Amino acid sequence: MGMSTGGNKGGVQSEINVTPLIDVLLVLLIIFLVVMPIMMKMETLQVPRKITDQEMVASDLTQLTVKVKDDLSIVYSENEKEQTIVAADLVKTLRARLDMLHTGNDKVVFVDFDDGVQWATVVSTMDTIRAIAADVNHDEIKVALKVREDQPPK
């Protein structure tokens, strides 16, 4: 099929067949086009806005906070009541409390952590809380990372 110019007509010709190479490249291109949207999936993080002194917070608002300590224990606090729980009991404790809250209200769970806690542990805790929302159609559950204001060094 190939055409050669001049030279020895009776000798061995070595021409590279590029058709399989092009087929492999096209398959790889299709794979990358399919995988890229999955890899580019972004996680949104909602940061609560700062409340000024003139604004009043509703007194019936229930603030749920999950704090991961340095020793990987978890402190669950609701308004001002705190209790230390085992990480395995987080789902059970939180699911029971979220089911008791009124429907229709936004349910926000704040996640806080000590300075020595690894970021992977914090993200794992947030994913565990999000799993509760996926289990029982709790679309109104939002997970927010608690923001601390930077304090000047002493």
Quick structural summary:
The protein is α/β, with parallel strands linked by helices. It has a domain at 64-145: 2-Layer Sandwich (Nucleotidyltransferase, domain 5). The chain has helices at 19-39, 90-100, 119-135; strands at 64-68, 74-78, 81-85, 107-113, 141-145.
Would you give an account of this structure?
The chain has 154 residues and is an alpha/beta fold. The chain contains 3 helices and 5 strands; from the N terminus they run αβββαβαβ. The protein has helices at 19-39, 90-100, 119-135; strands at residues 64-68, 74-78, 81-85, 107-113, 141-145. It has a 5-stranded mixed sheet with strand order 3-2-1-4-5, covered by helices on one side.
Annotate the secondary structure layout.
Blueprint: H1 19-39, E1 64-68, E2 74-78, E3 81-85, H2 90-100, E4 107-113, H3 119-135, E5 141-145
Parallel strand pairs: 1-4, 4-5
Antiparallel strand pairs: 1-2, 2-3
User: What percent of residues are in strands?
Assistant: 15-25%
State the CATH topology of the domain at 64-145.
Nucleotidyltransferase, domain 5
Strands in their spatial order, largest beta sheet? 3-2-1-4-5
Number of helices: 3
The CATH architecture of the domain at 64-145? 2-Layer Sandwich
- Written as H for each helix and E for each strand, in order along the chain, the element string is HEEEHEHE
Rg, alpha carbons: 29 Å
Which structural class do you get from the secondary structure elements?
alpha/beta
What is the top-level CATH class of the domain at 64-145?
A: Alpha Beta
